[in-house]
């Protein structure tokens, strides 16, 4: 069994039942629809309890239930993405990536915004000129470490300048 | 003169003067540092007034000033980006792209979040476990249009189901 | 079930029945053959009503009917396209893309022609030297937005110069 | 001298003079701004007369003038294009390419729309909901030829069925 | 049913029957073996009459017969081709492509040799030093068109200089 | 000095002098314009005598003359070619490559048509429907060799079946 | 039936029988194990007699036997190869390719070493520091031909300088 | 000034002076040669103090000194690397990457080993059979975060199962 | 049977049994979990004895057992890897690869660290700031050989300077 | 100074002097022309003594001399190579790579042929049917190591089965 086959099966059931991702997320236990959707699409894992709920909902086998609790091999496209909706996000990285790098580093020093210790929320922003998709995300700033420093003092620590 | 040569010149001056992007944005007129930085990095244009301010600040020639007011050929990398900070954003699209697509479409119908009619803000989120980079963005939802409809009524309009 | 399997099934039925895309579009309700064809090829969605018509015509299951009403993952090739007919359009973008960019921006300012809020029509242009394929398209011009502007006045709006 | 160096020089002069593509096209002799722009961007050739006019306008050397009358090596990007405006056209080919193929072939038989014997016009379409970019193009339909037919009759000709 | 499955089936039958492409071409009606072979390999279409002959010969279903009469999605490799025999042709384009461009343009002006209105013949050239493969091809020269010309006279026509 | 710089220099002189490839080929000694053009474009070598003639014609230095007598690093594009004229040849390989392979092998057995021991001629074919580009080429057929055969008799030779 | 399916079947039988390539090559008739192995892996053809022997050994059907006698579509990877053993050969070409070119051309003139008229042998070279893999290969030198020469004398021949 | 130009200049001076990376690292202040080397090669930044030392050593300008204190755009190759030494590391990731993923996740749960909060040491391991390169590295394990959890309790925290 | 099918089967059984890689490695005979895991994932081979143990554990057929004893075609991704955990290792090569090259060569001379004669160990490093993944690896240094030296003395040996 | 600039300079001098690679190799000290050529083309290093000889011969600066003694960043093309002579070697790997893998592993067990501890010789093989290029190479076989074995006995050693 491959993860994409399980994803296809889940999408088939969702379609036949006429469920939405929100209703599925609620049925599984009120967690973030983003996380639940990502897991059912094969990009995140569910916890054991969530996987059990999901298995009940979709009437999955034990093997399928456990697969939902496994960490998947992530990555949903060969660059660049061809779907217009997904491409727009990719384009934002292409147009603003260097700017984000400059401003994050100016504010935080050398490091990255974590894509792992990462929060995400999406909401509809009503707007008379046309509603907007609002995305709020935050990732822990992770500073590059000065490994191998041979001095005495805060050898291990990191004090950038 | 190529846009990247102008960018390189601006970065040289910024380095020699010891300026920050924020101070540059203020000097140019208090606009969003994101936009100003993106323009000076060759990914956005400055307005005429901003370009004049920038030209004063960086002591640019008339041709260079006008180039800052030109729309650039955008796109800062061949996919995928190699820089770790920029790559993390790319990775987010790879891991969450399909999820965003599913959830945006469930909420809004068929269409995209515009990367053109688009707001962006970045801020530091203090956190005892390590400060976080917070990014808030909103893009206008653009529904796919039903062109070529031959019926009478709301032929041009779009009423998805 | 994958969308391409449904497409393959629909093409099989079309072939066996000897139908044309035009006759199919009419049978489904007189909508643009472009849109109907694109949807049946897995690049657009049908409305619920259209999907019901299509399901009747092709004798599809409920799951298949609903899949036609789902937004597909779009994008029909890995660049560049190998089919000569499709390649010619790609070539036009390669040869004229920069020109279109220059002229659209000269006329409209910084922004893009939407590929989402987009009309399209194709017709045969009789010509004694050989008939021509005529394509008429229009897309809404979408100006880049000046987000993050900190001034008072038309802070949100966009007044390019 | 490379064609891209000549293009860069022409863009520098255009910027310093503050000219538009339309004014340039008029100065060169009232021809289609699309063709003139494409040629000055290095994707088409000018006729001898046009090249002479262009050389006068831009004060070019004889070698540069003749280069404008040469057929360039065409193609302005490595796929896919990164600039958002140009990408949107590319996206249209990706989303509608198979549809165009099906409908053109249904109407005309086996063949292509020429990208060489090709007309193009762009105009602004005023629209209260936001002006639109209108593009009208027509290309001669070129049928695939049945070469090598060994029968008597219309051996060379092409009568598709 | 996919075109490559039909191709695979035809190759299986050809192998089991011990047929040659020439004998197949004759059986189907004496047309160019190049065209017939290309069609059976999924790169060209057969006419209705040829498809009927082919269906008889290979004992195909009605759907399969009609598929042979359909225009295929052409293109037999992702560049570059790996098979040595096919690669040699690719190499010729790589080594002589620029030369062909220069000489064709010197002789005909700006335009291309059509790959659509195109003849092709292959024969064995006996040679005491080792027989040779002789290929003769001719394609209609298609001149680039000066669309959008605003003058009066031969506005539509094309008179290059 | 790089070969492409020499090519650029030669093209500059050709342009300024207003020469054609044919006149250059004649001036260099009446050899095939294809070979001479390919060599001057950096894809073939000239013989010493030809290089001397070319050096006189273009007033080249001794180093440049000798470079024309050197075998170049061949290959004029990263696949696929973007120029429409060159692309058409590439397309022919993509559409007919498998056919050529099948028919050459049916006629000659396992092997290739040499792209090294290779003749080429191009001519204009007058045609009332539009003149044609005629290309005649022949390459020696090279059979794959049965190396390592351990039998006695025609161990080294090749007798295919 | 695809060639890779036949290869997979042959590998399955070889594994179950516990055969080696050498024993297979002997059973098929004492030919070079390199050629026999390459053919059974789908990169070369067997002669009819060899195919018959192979069919007996592996208990193949007539269609499978004949497929072994067909010339395959060659090429076993998309560049670059990922397997370390195969990659080392690729690396040798990357590191020494330009050197081989220079030295072969210095010795033989303009041309190539044939990969078609090509011998190959592999043996174990005992060595107290670790046994070595010895590969001996020879390919016929093929000189580039001066086609299209218009002089009288050895017009067809090739006398490089 | 581009970072690679500065790297080239530093390499030129190092070569002319006959310095080693170790001696440079000591001269700059006894820090890890890995970090110092990486920074001078344009992949890491130096602290201000280190940059000052480096500037003294290499007699750099103020702009160059400050550039060494800037975070570079990282990434030293387009995949895959061609240099054999660097390729071996890449190969290790290709061969063991999935294994590392399985074992790290089995031990730590869902997350990654940080390439940012990362230690590295290299040493020579004497061995009678040939000395070995020993590399010791450790990266902080970063667990994927359950954002958007709507429950009460440890809503923000992460307790995987 | 393909190796990836066997891998999929083994993963299915592991999931259903609820086994860990460590428990599997112990059951197979106490060998390195890294090696056993890599082999079961299709990147390494098991010895005959290990394969027999593995076959008992997973109840495999004889053919499957023998396949585990076969050397696989290695390489687990098309570059670059999309999974975040695996990508971090790839990123380390991209950021530190040139540094490793410089320092290994400074210490050992011209050569590589073997990825074949290679040790590897992974362990958890407890750390109050977050546990760390520690990886220790060593590879034999392999010096480039001076083949073809024609002098007398240590002609075959290698004494770098 | 970049290595490719030094290579270009060396090629310029070689051309002007009319030297061959063999005469250069002799002048530098009678070493293998393969190694000397590879080093002067920027793919290998010269020893100090050889670099001194080369510097005398080519009248190089001290920095250039030392650069010849540095290990270069190897790799002479982006795959696949476009030059026909070099491509033939690449093709051999593509056609025979899997065969070589099978036969080397059958003879030696799991491992690779080293591309580092590697001998190479090239010679002209006179042949009445056309002289041949003979290449003899041998590389040390490197067995994959069983690291991490926890048993007592030949824990570190490698005894494959």
TrEMBL record, chains A, B, C, D, E, F, G, H, I, J:
Pfam families, alphabetized: Cyanate_lyase, CYNS_N
Top-rank lineage group of the source organism: Bacteria
EC primary class: lyase
UniProt xrefs under InterPro entries: Cyanase, Cyanate_lyase_C, Cyanate_lyase_C_sf, CYNS_N, Lambda_DNA-bd_dom_sf
Domain Cyanate lyase C-terminal: 75-147
GO molecular function: cyanate hydratase activity; DNA binding
CDD domains registered for this protein in UniProt: Cyanase_C (cd00559)
E.C. code: 4.2.1.104
Keywords: Lyase
Active site: 88, 91, 114
SUPFAM superfamilies (alphabetical): Cyanase C-terminal domain, lambda repressor-like DNA-binding domains
Reactions catalysed, as given in the entry: cyanate + hydrogencarbonate + 3 H(+) = NH4(+) + 2 CO2
Function: Catalyzes the reaction of cyanate with bicarbonate to produce ammonia and carbon dioxide.
NCBIfam families per the UniProt record, alphabetical: cynS, PRK02866.1
Protein family according to the UniProt entry: Belongs to the cyanase family.
UniProt protein name: Cyanate hydratase
Organism lineage string: Bacteria, Pseudomonadati, Pseudomonadota, Alphaproteobacteria, Acetobacterales
């Amino acid at each position: 069994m491959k993860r994409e086959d399980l994803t296809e099966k889940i999408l088939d059931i969702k379609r036949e039942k006429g469920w939405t991702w929100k209703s599925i997320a609620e049925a599984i236990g009120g967690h973030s629809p983003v996380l639940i959707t990502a897991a059912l699409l094969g990009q995140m894992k569910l916890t054991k309890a969530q996987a059990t709920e999901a298995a009940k909902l979709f009437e999955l086998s034990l093997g399928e239930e456990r697969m939902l609790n496994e960490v998947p091999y992530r990555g949903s496209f060969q660059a660049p993405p061809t779907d217009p909706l997904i491409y727009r996000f990719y384009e934002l990285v292409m147009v603003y990536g260097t700017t984000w790098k400059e401003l994050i580093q100016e504010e935080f020093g050398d490091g990255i915004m974590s894509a792992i210790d990462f929060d995400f929320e999406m909401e509809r922003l009503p707007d008379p000129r046309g509603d907007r998709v609002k995305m709020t995300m935050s990732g822990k700033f992770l500073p590059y470490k000065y490994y191998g420093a041979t001095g005495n003092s805060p050898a291990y620590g990191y004090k950038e300048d």
